From TrEMBL, chain A:
<dbReference type="InterPro" id="IPR029069">
    <property type="entry name" value="HotDog_dom_sf"/>
</dbReference>
<protein>
    <recommendedName>
        <fullName>MaoC dehydratase-like protein</fullName>
    </recommendedName>
</protein>
TrEMBL record, chain B:
<dbReference type="Pfam" id="PF22691">
    <property type="entry name" value="Thiolase_C_1"/>
</dbReference>
<dbReference type="InterPro" id="IPR002155">
    <property type="entry name" value="Thiolase"/>
</dbReference>
<dbReference type="InterPro" id="IPR020616">
    <property type="entry name" value="Thiolase_N"/>
</dbReference>
<dbReference type="InterPro" id="IPR055140">
    <property type="entry name" value="Thiolase_C_2"/>
</dbReference>
<feature type="domain" description="Thiolase N-terminal">
    <location>
        <begin position="20"/>
        <end position="215"/>
    </location>
</feature>
<dbReference type="GO" id="GO:0016747">
    <property type="term" value="F:acyltransferase activity, transferring groups other than amino-acyl groups"/>
</dbReference>
<dbReference type="InterPro" id="IPR016039">
    <property type="entry name" value="Thiolase-like"/>
</dbReference>
Automatic annotation (TrEMBL), chain C:
<dbReference type="GO" id="GO:0003677">
    <property type="term" value="F:DNA binding"/>
</dbReference>
<feature type="domain" description="FAS1-like dehydratase">
    <location>
        <begin position="20"/>
        <end position="143"/>
    </location>
</feature>
<feature type="domain" description="ChsH2 C-terminal OB-fold">
    <location>
        <begin position="209"/>
        <end position="271"/>
    </location>
</feature>
<dbReference type="Pfam" id="PF13452">
    <property type="entry name" value="FAS1_DH_region"/>
</dbReference>
<dbReference type="InterPro" id="IPR029069">
    <property type="entry name" value="HotDog_dom_sf"/>
</dbReference>
<feature type="domain" description="ChsH2 rubredoxin-like zinc ribbon">
    <location>
        <begin position="172"/>
        <end position="203"/>
    </location>
</feature>
<dbReference type="InterPro" id="IPR002878">
    <property type="entry name" value="ChsH2_C"/>
</dbReference>
Amino acid sequence: MTGIGEVLPELVIEVTPTFVISTALATRDFQDVHHDPELARERGSAGIFLNILTDTGLVSRFVTDWAGPDALVRRISLRLGVPCHAHETLRLTGRVTGHAVADGEDRWEVSVVGANSLGDHVTATVWVVRR
Amino acid sequence: MTAAIAGIGATEFSKDSGRSELALAAHAGLAAITDAGLRPSDVDGMVTFTMDANAETALARELGVPELTFFGRVPYGGGAACAVVAHAAMAVATGAASTVLCYRAFNERSGRRFGQVHTPDGVDNGWHYPMGLVTPAASVAMFARRYQHEYDVTSEDFGRVAVLDRRAAATNPNAWFHGRPITLADHQASRWIVEPLRLLDCCQETDGAVALVVTTVDRARDLPRHPVVIAAAAQGSAADQFTMHSYYRDDLTGLPELGLVGRALWAGSGIGPEDLSALVLYDHFTPFVLVQLEELGFCARGEARHLLADGTLELDGRLPLNPHGGQLGEAYVHGMNGITEAVRQLRGTAANQIRDAEHVLVTAGTGVPTSGLVLSR
Amino acid sequence: MIEEAARELAARGESARRVARDPVNLPMIRNWTEAIGDDNPTYEHYAPPAMAQVWTMPGLAGQRPADDPLGAMVAVLDEAGYTSVVATDSEQTYHRYLSPGETVEVSSRLDGVTGPKRTALGEGWFVTTRSTWYVGDEPVAEMMFRVLKFRPSGVAGTAIRPAVSSDTEFFWAGTALGELRIQRCGGCGRLRHPPGPMCPSCRQTRPGYVVAAGEGTVYSYVVHHHPPVPGRAAPFVVALVELTEGVRMLAELVGVPPSEVHIGLEVRVGFSRVDGELTLPVWRRR
Ligand SMILES: [Zn+2]
């Protein structure tokens, strides 16, 4: 039974260069900072890093892994923090923080934090309908 | 020449002196005056660097020097080192003063570090600093790259200067790097600062002060220390000269302003490269040590790397270089500690004493209008 | 000027709709789920909602349409010296899940521009856009997207600026116009850089200038690693270039990895605008 305060199972992503590049390309993001380490460094980064569309996808996966295949994701709101470079470990943790009925649906608010060695990479709020 | 160095003094060399630059200047100044067997009231002239933050008046007040009849300053950073002695020598030769205190004092490590990014004034600097060439290391690296290209010189060739300096510093108790020699492998493993310069190609940053007393040879003979005679002193600025950025000359692999100084020194002293007992060459960055050896006629253009590799310049070699450890090994006091080392060698009181030292060449900052000295027993 | 441009762009409302390259399709969905590691079986029948924007990404060769409000606002801020960008927030709302075979279209508008604000990265403006994805006339997803366009700390405030005199102002006036100017003596015609008031050849004091072709070769160069330099990301290359006109000139060499720079590299001048008062020449590979 879902309830406010419920803690979601942690999701740990080993952010390999392959992960950074394959997710960037799968989200059709061809910016060089997501696949070319030399150019990424030239532009002032420590190396290639995750793109935002992948963050959105990971937060979605993290919540539906918990909520189940029938759940419907209605909103993903995210704020970006420190970058997530290749060779980082990204740890997603979450907790149910709210409940509301809207458009005739039971919507749960889940707060998610994705953190790596530099700090919080992404802080998200997800509205999900559990069915 | 009719002038001599009668006294030398210095503070300890550190990374954080814990006191003001004026306190450092006063400490070194008093030590030099005392070393000469004089009293502050004997001093009637002062010369320092344009860059020095301590007013002559302030230092005179601290030391209790009552009257000054001569004071002057020399510009262009470390290029002033030997020139302050030259100016002092001219003052005592003309009678403008009888006893001149030369000094340089700074908290260059704990205070304003030359190796950090600064925004200098001056129209000339506008062609270099805004473009991203912002430190002395970067300015010298531009020359070093071209020198490497034209003469097939490697980073290891530069590294041999650092190894030599640190080997001498290791046995000099006054050196910051006393007891800490390095290998060529250490040099090669040190990080890039501005390619082609590595960390160990760059001199230290130091808090400290050095001072010395110049008077006439005749007067110096009556003082307790054995006088060190200023056999020749010269300054030099060459065609199309810039400060650190003489990039617009046909050739980037020489230091013509130093060549000019060298010729004046040989002519003025009657002493040639073959007569010298030791060399104290300004070493803020290793590449210009090679260029100086060539410019002064110790070897042909592009050949200095062989001189460094074959042992000639080692402490036990034919022509020892920087027996105190230089500014990479002992301390960076804008070249002034090189002059006091030459004095110690000629007095016979150096930490790494060279037997029967008779004539020592000292040079000042490179890449800028510069100066040099030949000092003799 | 920034506020005015923002008001004008916001008043334009929604951009023309842009149609996705492909309809929603299983192969792209499977590439996405495989890469993200999402094994949700629903995605054998529906597209992951988080893919909404993926369908309309411009792709490798694509370009932003001329009426894209974010692109237009970014250009205004670039011009004002706020040259760096970082995404700060995004909020996606999914009205319904999409099925393979549906074709989406997207339309965007500028929601607002606020600033200038002091941030940890430097002074900047927050630019907020809103996009809507449609199937036919039905809105199926929406997104609020916010970026910070900023002037990296130090670039404007402590940018190393040249001291300019009446002898050298022609050079800097030239860079602002995209011209690389070399001083030319009005008496003997000698070219000279850096410039000065009196010709060292003929001692005339009537300097003019020529506009350089802007091409040359690297005569020497350095790769700066340390210490950090405000407004520049190390390592960066500074090159002394011999111009075809015969004078040497110093500038940053951009767009070439340090390992590929060598003496003799052929370069062409470009211009890097720091702000309204300073434009620096830069070298690029020819
Ligand atoms: Zn002329």
